[in-house]
């Protein structure tokens, strides 16, 4: 009997021209491509390995979905979300906040994971959004937060996507556990500890590796 390959559906959202395609392609290919055809959504399929388990990743890099009116559809489809803004564009930060707001309204109470990504960190000289604003917003919506530059390097972008995927995979594993009775607080902390790398005494275990 063949076991199904686990799958994570990722949606990349954000205002126009913040670098959604740039960060997505940087993550997938390590390359930076300056210009993309706007007004198109791009769909990618990609595989990563979590603790020797091959996982299929589907990434939807969206474009102008507020104007096209397909935000709702994209939010319904995805289970992990990267919300991108540009640090030199205050308006894009407000739009990111609006998307996080919509996510909360449309997705809860089902599980989803989200990542707030401040792109174009290299344009520090014309910054309109400070790091603290990003942190604050991520705390408000309980999402991960990274500032990156798709133009300048691969490492930051890769780390951000890996964290989002790892959290999403952990949530999937938790959901798939055959819980027949209510777990006590200790049991829940044990399960979380196993996934996030702590044992029940609070000692940190070696983090499982992720190769892409
Ligand atoms: N300086 C700088 N420019 C960037 C960076 N990332 C993307 N850009 C530039 O920003 C512009 C928009 O990038 P895209 O990746 O097309 O942005 P997008 O959000 O996918 O755009 P739409 O699909 O039209 O909404 C391009 O000119 C990129 O070269 C970055 O990290 N730093």
Tell me what the structure shows.
This protein is α/β, with parallel strands linked by helices. The chain has helices at 20-29, 65-68, 71-77, 90-107, 131-140, 155-176, 185-196, and strands at residues 7-14, 42-50, 53-61, 80-86, 113-119, 144-147, 210-211. Strands 6-5-4-1-3-2-7 form a seven-stranded mixed sheet, with helices on both faces. Strand 4, helix 4 and strand 5 form a beta-alpha-beta unit. 31% of the residues are buried. Guanosine-5'-triphosphate is lined by residues 16-22, 34-36, 38, 63-64, 119-120, 122-123, 149-151.
How would you summarize this macromolecular structure in one to three sentences?
Its EC number is 3.6.5.2. The chain is of the alpha/beta class.
């Amino acid at each position: 009997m063949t076991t199904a390959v686990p799958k994570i559906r990722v949606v990349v959202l954000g205002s126009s021209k913040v670098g959604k395609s740039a960060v997505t392609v940087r993550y997938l290919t390590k390359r930076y491509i300056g210009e993309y055809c706007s007004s198109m959504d791009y769909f990618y399929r990609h595989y990563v390995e979590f603790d020797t388990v091959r996982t299929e990743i589907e990434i939807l890099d969206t474009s102008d979905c507020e104007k096209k009116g397909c935000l709702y559809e994209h939010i319904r489809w995805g289970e992990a979300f990267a919300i991108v803004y540009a640090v030199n564009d205050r308006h894009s930060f407000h739009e990111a906040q609006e998307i996080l707001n919509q996510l909360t309204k449309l997705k809860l109470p089902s599980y989803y994971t989200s990542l707030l990504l401040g792109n174009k960190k290299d344009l520090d000289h014309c910054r309109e959004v400070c790091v603290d604003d990003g942190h604050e917003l991520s705390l408000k919506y309980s999402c991960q937060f990274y500032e990156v530059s798709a133009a300048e390097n691969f490492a930051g972008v890769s780390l951000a996507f890996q964290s989002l995927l790892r959290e999403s995979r952990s949530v999937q594993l938790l959901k798939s556990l055959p819980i027949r009775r209510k777990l006590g607080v200790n049991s829940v902390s044990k399960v979380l500890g196993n996934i996030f790398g702590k044992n029940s005494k609070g000692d940190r275990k070696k983090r499982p590796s992720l190769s892409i």
